[in-house]
Amino acid sequence: MWRGYGRRQQAPGSYASRRRFQPRPRQPLAIGVLKTLGADNIAKTTRAIRDDPQRALPILGITNDPDTYGT
Q: Range of 48's domain?
């Protein structure tokens, strides 16, 4: 049984074989994190992180403090 979908006619189930794409997020994850942390000027903040990558480590939860617990 053929059914019309739009201008073309297709066999049932042939639509399922088409490649489907998931929607892209509206903003990159890093920008969302910076907004959550309270960055007012995203462009200025990303330039500062680009110029000094050490600034990104605390945002990612990486610190240079040695863990002395249990020693």
A: 29-63
Q: Is residue 11 part of a domain?
A: no
On whether residue 19 sits in a domain, the answer given is no
Condensed to tens digits (0 to 9), the pLDDT of residues 1-57 reads 555 555 566 566 555 555 566 666 677 888 888 999 999 999 999 999 999 988 888
Whether 43 is covered by a domain: the verdict is: yes
Q: How many CA atoms lie within 13 A of 31 on its CB side?
A: 8
Which has the closest alpha carbon to 28: 20, 40, 36? 36
**φ, ψ dihedrals at 3, nearest 5°:** -125, 145
CB 19 within 8 A of CB 12: no
Q: How far apart are CA 37 and CA 31, in angstroms?
A: 10
- Is the residue at 51 inside a domain? yes
